[in-house]
Amino acid sequence: MTAHDAVPLSVVDSWWRAANYLSVGQIYLLDNPLLKRPLKVDDIKPRLLGHWGTTPALNFIYAHLNKLIVERSSNVIYIAGPGHGGPGVVANAWLDGTYSELFPQVSQNGEGMRRLFRQFSFPGGIPSHAAPETPGSINEGGELGYSLVHAYGAALDNPDLITACVIGDGEAETATLATSWHLNKFLSPMTDGAVLPILNLNGYKIANPTVLARIPEHELESLFIGYGYSPRIVAGGFDDEDPMAVHQRFADTMAQAFDDIATIQRQARSGGETARAAWPMVILKTPKGWTGPKFVDGLPVENTWRAHQVPLAGVRDNPEHLAQLQEWLMSYRPGELFDAHGKPVVELAPARPAGDLRMSANPHANGGLLRKALTLPALDAVAVDITPGDGPSGPGTGAEGRGAVAEPTRVLGAWLRDLIRLNPESFRIFGPDEVASNRLDDVYEVTAKEWQAEVLETDENLSHDGRVIEILSENLAQGLLEGYLLTGRHGLFTSYEAFIHVVDSMFNQYAKWLESSAKVEWRRPISSFTYLLSSHVWRQDHNGFSHQDPGFLDHVVNKQSSVVRVYLPPDANTLLVTAEHCLASRDYVNVIVAGKQPTASLLSLEEARTHGARGVSVWEWAGTERVGEEPDVVVAAAGDVPTVEAMAAVQILKKEIPALAVRFVNVVDLMRLQEQTEHPHGLDAASFDAVFTTDKPVVFAFHGYPSLIHRLTYRRTNHANIHVRGFKEMGTTTTPFDMLMLNDLDRFRLVMDVIRRVPRLSTAYAGLSQKMDDARAAHRAYTRAHGEDAPDVTGSAGLVFASDEDVEEAGDTGDDNARGGRGEFG
Asked: Are residues 457 and 508 in the same domain?
C-alpha cells in the first residue's frame, strides 16, 4: 500500500475494536489476555482502577486520524484531554508498535499483552493518564483543562504540524479550557501549524451532566462560531446505529476539516488571504462508555454517568459481573484482531502509519529529539558598566558615593532583544499583558506581539508574526509555553509576582511531568521552564495589598529538588547572568524574581558571573569584618530590595558601632541554603558553617515570607541563631519605604535586630536602638505629611554608602572593605 492509498473503513473499525479490547483488558485483567479459556476470578485485578467512559471515543478518533495520516502523509500529534483516557492512548501506542519498541518487554504477542494489561494502574506499573511514560503524549490530562492550550503551544512555529486535540465535555467546563478557545486569534496560518479541536460530547462528568451536552444544538454551534471557528457536528453510537454509518460520517467530516486546514494555510502562504481564518473544529457526540455494557444490575450504564469509571465493579465477587465482562470483551471479536500468538493481525496494517508518522512515535511529542540549543548573545554589550569613582570603596560608587542605578529588567530586555534576533523561530516570550510593564519592551525593536484579530490605528506593536504572545490569562501563558517547550523550543514566562499564584496548580502538574519524564529513558531533555517574576511585593506600594504576595516561592520549593531552582538576583548584571544560565538549562523549572524599578548596580559582569556560580557569597566590601577574624554578626540578604536595606543597615552600623565586625552575605541561589543531601545546589555543612558561622547571630533580610528561610535551613548547625525579616502579610497602598517598615524589613529595624541579638550590644547600645526606632517614626510621619519617602532613603535607589569622612570618624583605617578585598566563601 502506498502512502496515498485509501484505508477502508472496515480496517478503521477493526483498529477501533482492537483498541477498545486492549483498553478494557488494561482496566480489568491480570492474566488470560486472549481469553483462551473462560475468565476466572484470579484473572481479574484485585483493585479495578481506570476510566472507561471517555476511552472508546478517544480510540475512535485515533483510528480515524491514522487513516488520514496514512492517506495524506500528514504530520499529526494526538492530545488526549479527557482526564483518564490513558487506557486508550496506551492501547493505540501498542497497536502502532511504538510501545513495544520503547518497552521491549511489552512485546506484540500474548505475553506482551499480558504485561500491558497487568502494568496499568498497578503497583510498579504505569498511571491511568496519558503520562510521560505514554509514547506520543505531551498532555497528561490528570488535571483537566490544559489540552487545548498545549495544542496551540505545540503548533506555534511548527508550520507542517497538525495538533489534533480531543477535549472532553467535562474538561470543557474548566476555566483554562474555556478561555483556550480564543487562542485561534494568536495562530498564524503563515508560520504556525494548525490545531484541530475535537470536542467529544459524551454527556456526563463523574456524576452530573455536562453543560455543553445539554444546550440546543443551534446554541452550541453559535457558541463556537462566536469563538471564530467553523464547527462541524457528528453524532453517532446511539439507538444501536450501524457503526459503519458513524464511521462514514466522521471520516467525511475529518477529511473536510483537513482539506480546510490545507486551504487556509495555502492561501495565507501564497500571499493571498490575510483575513483571520475560521479554523475548523469537530464536535463528536457519542454515548459515554460507548460499546460497553448497556445495563448492569438492571440499571442503565452506557450513555449515563455510571459508565464514567469501571462499569462492572464487582467482577471478583459477582459471577454475573464476571460473565458480563467475558461477554463484553468477546463483543470486540478478538479472534479477528489478534493471531493465535497475540500479535495484531496483518489486516490492521493499512491503518498503521509508518515510522515517525505514527502519532505515538512523532518526534514532536518527544521534543528533546528536535531541540536545538539557543544561540546566546554576549552579555557584555548590555551589561551595566560598574566603574569605581572618587567616593568610598565599594562597587558602583561614583563621585556621589552611591550605587550606580539601573532598572534590572530593562537591562534584561535589551539582552532578550538580541536573543530573539539570533533565534527568530525558536524562542518566544509569553505573559499576561505585562511585557512592557515589566520593562522588557526593548524586545519590540526586533519583534512585535502576535495578533490575528482586528488591528486599529491606535494599536502598537501588533503583528501577524510576532514573537511575544500576551493574553490576560496566566493560565494560557503557562500552557502555551509548556506546549512550546515540550515540542522542542525555548521561551520565557514573565508575570507580576502576586498573580503568578493563578497557575499554582498548572505549575504542580508541569513539575510532576518533569519529575516523571526524568525517569523515562527515551524521553529526551527539553528546555527548562523559566518564570521571570517582576513588579514584585516590595515595589507594589502603588497598587496595594492585592498586588503584594511573594508566596509563589513557598509553593515552588515543595516540589522535588531535581526539578526546581529559585533565583533572587540583587542587581542588573546578576539578573543577566541568571537569565543566561536558566535559558540554557534543561528539564528544570526556574523561578527568577527581579525588580523593574531603578536600583543599585552592585556587581560588575565578571563579579556577577562569579557570584552566580557560587550562589552564596561573602561580600567583604559590604561588611566590616577584618580578614582572619571572626565576625560578631552575619547580615544576610536574598532579593534586590532586601539587599539594599541590609547594606544600608551595615553602613549605619559601620558609622555607629565601628568596632563591630559585620559579615555581609548575599544569596542569589535560594536552594543553596538547603543541605546538599536535600538539593543538588545545597551547600555542604562545612561550607554553610564557614559562611554563616556555627554560633554567631544571623540577621537575614529576605524577599519573601520568613518561614521559607527557616524551612530551608532548619537542619543547619546555626539555625537557632538565624533571625529572618521578610514579608509578613502587612500591605497597603503606601510608599516603598513605608511598605518596608510595615513589614519590619527596613534598615533601621535591621540595625535594631543586630543590637538586640549581639549580646554585648543590647545594653551598651540601647540608645542607638531607640534612635533607630525614632527614625522609623520620623520616616512614617514624613510619608503622611508629604506623600512620599524622605530623600535620605531614596537617593540613588535608596542605597546610601557612608562617606569617606564617616569611615574616618568611625576609626576604620583598614582597606579590607575595598573592592579588591573580596574572598571566596567556605
From this structure: yes
Cα 809 vs. chain centroid, distance in angstroms? 53
CB-based burial, 282-305: b 16+ in 10 Å, e otherwise: bbbbbbbbbbbbeebeeeebbbbb
Question: How many angstroms separate the CA atoms of 61 and 58, rounded?
Answer: 5
Looking at the structure, tell me whether residues 521 and 649 fall in a common domain. no
pLDDT tens-digit map of 614-670? 999 999 999 999 888 899 999 999 999 999 999 999 999 999 999 999 999 999 999
**Which residue reads 496595594 in cell numbers?**
544
Selection from 463, 525, 469, 465 nearest residue 494 by Cα: 469
Query: What are 730-768's pLDDT values in tens digits?
Result: 889 999 999 999 999 999 999 999 999 999 999 999 999
Within this chain, do residues 453 and 561 fall inside the same structural domain, yes or no? yes
299-300 and 295-296 strand pairing: antiparallel
Sequence length of the chain is 826
DSSP state of 414: H
Mean pLDDT for the stretch of residues 514-518: 96
d(CA 746, CA 765): 19
CATH of residue 712:
3.40.50.920
- For 250-265, letters b (16+ CB in 10 Å) and e give bbebbeebbebbeebb
Total domains present in the chain: 3
53 and 169 fall within a common domain: yes
Return the ∠ at Cα 278 (arms to 274 and 284), rounded to 5°: 160
Q: In angstroms, rounded to a whole number, what is the distance separating the alpha carbons of residues 556 and 703?
A: 15
User: Is 340 found in the same domain as 302?
Assistant: yes
Residue ending a domain, choose from 362, 394, 425: 362
- pLDDT average, residue stretch 17-26: 98
User: For 619-650, b where at least 16 C-beta lie within 10 A, e where not — what string?
Assistant: bbbbbbbeeeeebbbbbbbbbbbbbbbbbbbb
Last residue of one domain, picked from the residues 362, 391, 425: 362
Give the C-alpha separation, 676 to 617, whole Å: 17
Q: What is the pLDDT of residue 822?
A: 27
52 is a domain residue: yes
Q: Measured between alpha carbons, how far is 597 from 799 in angstroms, rounded to an integer?
A: 13
**One domain for residues 552 and 652:** no
- Give the chain's end-to-end CA distance (angstroms, integer): 69
Between CA 624 and CA 394 the distance in angstroms is: 12
Name residue, grid cell 497598587.
543
Please give the residue that has the higher pLDDT: either 403 or 55.
55
> Which residues are within 8 A (CB) of 267 and not within 5 positions of it... i.e. 6 or more apart?
189, 273
Q: What was the pLDDT predicted at 812?
A: 34
Say if 396 falls within a structural domain: no
In a shared domain, residues 442 and 339: no
Please count the other Cβ atoms lying within 10 Å of the Cβ belonging to residue 715. 12
Within a domain: 383: no
- Tell me: do 571 and 637 sit in the same domain: no
Residue bearing cell 558561622: 693
Residue 398 burial (CB count, 10 A): 16
pLDDT of residue 275: 84
Q: For residue 357, give the H/E element and its range.
A: none
The CA distance from 637 to 643, in Å, is 5
> What does the block give as the cell for 388?
569605581
Residue 582 CB contacts under 8 Å (≥ 6 apart), including other chains = 528, 530, 565, 567, 588, 590, 592
- Domain around 417: 404-599
Provide the angle, in degrees to the nearest 10, between the axes of the packed helices 572-584 and 605-614: 60
Q: Flag whether 111 is in a domain.
A: yes
Q: What Cα–Cα distance (Å) separates residue 667 from each residue in 567, 637, 658, 763?
A: 9, 6, 25, 31
Whichever domain contains 64, its CATH number is 3.40.50.970
Instruction: Give the strand order in the sheet containing 75-80.
Output: 75-80, 161-168, 194-201, 280-285, 230-235
